[in-house]
């Protein structure tokens, strides 16, 4: 995949952290919006490709991911995010 080849040659710079609230939670200052992975604005990616993109973002220091049950069909977006970052027990919700 051409995009993957381009990503392999980029410099990895850690994302600065941002403290949320008063409980000591820190997340990357830069977040990753996952809506585009599930086809809300474009053709959806396969689960394999979507997971690969999320993993690449996580490997580059992104620890704040925006997902929703409304992104995609049958919770596809949440499932992709969960497959990659399943061992991080953090959840944010929005209404």
UniProtKB/TrEMBL annotation:
SUPFAM superfamilies this protein is in?
NAD(P)-linked oxidoreductase
A GO MF label = oxidoreductase activity
Query: GO terms for CC?
Result: cytoplasm
Q: Which InterPro entries match?
A: Aldo-Keto_reductase (IPR050791), NAD(P)_OxRdtase_dom_sf (IPR036812), NADP_OxRdtase_dom (IPR023210)
One of this protein's Pfam families, by short name? Aldo_ket_red
Q: Which UniProt keywords apply?
A: NADP, Oxidoreductase
Domain called NADP-dependent oxidoreductase: residue spans? 29-87
What is the name of this protein?
Perakine reductase
Source organism per UniProt = Quercus suber
């Amino acid at each position: 995949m051409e995009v993957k080849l381009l990503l392999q040659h980029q410099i990895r710079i850690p994302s600065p952290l941002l403290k949320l609230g008063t409980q000591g939670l820190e997340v990357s200052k830069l977040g990753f919006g996952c809506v585009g992975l599930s086809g809300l604005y474009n053709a959806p990616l396969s689960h394999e490709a979507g997971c690969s993109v999320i993993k690449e973002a996580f490997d580059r220091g992104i620890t704040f991911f925006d997902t929703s049950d409304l992104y995609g069909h049958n919770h596809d977006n949440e499932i992709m995010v969960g497959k990659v970052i399943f061992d991080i027990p953090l959840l944010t919700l929005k209404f």
